[in-house]
Amino acid sequence: MFGQNDPRYPLPDLDVLLVEDAASLRAIYEPHLRRAGLDTHCAATASDALSLFQRHRMKLVLIDLSLHDRDGFDLLADILALQPETAVVVIAAERSTEQAVRAMRAGALDFLVKPISEERLGEVIETARQLAQQRADLDSRSGGAPLGEFIGRSPRMQQVYGHMRAAARSQAPLLISGEIGTGKKLAAQCIHALSAYGSDGFQALDCAALTPELLEEATLTAPRAQRPDGVGLIGGTLFLDNIDEMSAPTQSRLLDIMQNHGDGKTGLPHGRRLISACAASPTALVTEAGLRRDLFYRLNVLTLTMVPLRLRREDITPIARTLLHRIAMQEGRPSMELSSAAVNAIEAYDWPGNVREMINALRSALVLNDGPELTPEMLPGEIGNMPAHPYPETPAHKSLSGLTLAEVEKLAIRDALARHNGAVAKAAAELGVAPSTIYRKLGDWRKA
């Protein structure tokens, strides 16, 4: 319920930024927020809001879309680029399915329509508090976990986040698998930061260039104060990247170290946690990559699989918008907004290089072009040339007799996509299915 904090249930400090250009509405909402125990900041313009947010980094932001000085969606993108874990709630003057879908795809927590009831506002605050509490619980164990570096909010990524938190509670060896560019090293760093040993060292080694001698130096050196080269740290995490490229002699030495020198809990001497990563599937490590079976079983105690972008397409646009703003800040250039055609192009592309490929494509587009909007022509050819609406509409009179159920399903999905100009969310709403169902079907058809 909406109201004063219950002292029996301590909650993290929750500060809120209310961005509303109508003074009369600010006068209504602000007392409600303060009565809920929130440290409340108000702004009448997007410019003032961004300035306040850069100073205070609030956990909850309420944005009126109809601001006079700037589009509310632009402000939403700026805020999430600065702090992706922020709970942003969009407020609109009237109910609009198109705006609601756009807000959710941009990373908003919720979409509210004026007038906002006290009960509805209370529900949003409670959700934001729960999210803040979860993050506070994690940060209390890690000193500030970098889970915010992961931008995706799809169901698949939420499952990955849950597995990461669970893995952080253990010291057992962990194997992270995933395609190039899916964030395996970042996941290892997050798990390390979330763990009880997050304040100890994190050392990453590339197995493609790892010799038995270097491995010994990294694992067998007696504990001591941290050295400048990062070798010989007590506790902490050793991250072995590209385990599928480890040479046979190095494999033998690693197995010997784990068998004869490991502490039986973490797998390595001196209480160090071992996390390894591979681009191959875990089952292919032995059958195709040539990893020793006995070593595989020691590395594969816990398993985490990273999800490629093509299997979580609802994350593509929010990730791209956030990356665009980050890259612009790095390059010292004005940021760009994605045109609707560019959104269609990036969502139709399979991104075989995943987020790493996306970063390169967006950096190239931003550095080599000027203007407020990024269009498909600015993207590398194979991305920018993706058809915006690659699903030709089936004539309504086309006979369905003789078609299998799977073929009828395919026609129905393609027709819906054509009617909605390739907008998966709208097509899914018309068909009464989840957007993830359509993305999964499209992926299956591409493989066929």
Automatic annotation (TrEMBL):
Extract the InterPro entries matched here: AAA_lid_NorR, CheY-like_superfamily, Homeodomain-like_sf, HTH_Fis, P-loop_NTPase, Sig_transdc_resp-reg_receiver, Sigma_54_int
List the GO biological process terms.
phosphorelay signal transduction system; regulation of DNA-templated transcription
User: Modified residue 4-aspartylphosphate is at which positions?
Assistant: 64
Protein name according to UniProt: Sigma-54-dependent Fis family transcriptional regulator
Which Pfam families does the record match to this protein? AAA_lid_14, HTH_8, Response_reg, Sigma54_activat
Query: Which residue range or ranges hold the Sigma-54 factor interaction domain?
Result: 150-367
Source organism phylogeny: Bacteria, Pseudomonadati, Pseudomonadota, Alphaproteobacteria, Rhodobacterales
Q: Which residues form the Response regulatory domain?
A: 15-129
Task: Output the Gene Ontology terms for molecular function.
Answer: ATP binding; sequence-specific DNA binding
Fetch the SMART domains from UniProt.
REC
The record's annotation in PROSITE patterns points to: RESPONSE_REGULATORY, SIGMA54_INTERACT_4
Q: Which UniProt keywords apply?
A: ATP-binding, DNA-binding, Nucleotide-binding, Phosphoprotein, Transcription, Transcription regulation, Two-component regulatory system
Asked whether the keyword Transcription regulation is assigned, the reply is: yes
Which SUPFAM superfamilies does this one have?
CheY-like (SSF52172), Homeodomain-like (SSF46689), P-loop containing nucleoside triphosphate hydrolases (SSF52540)
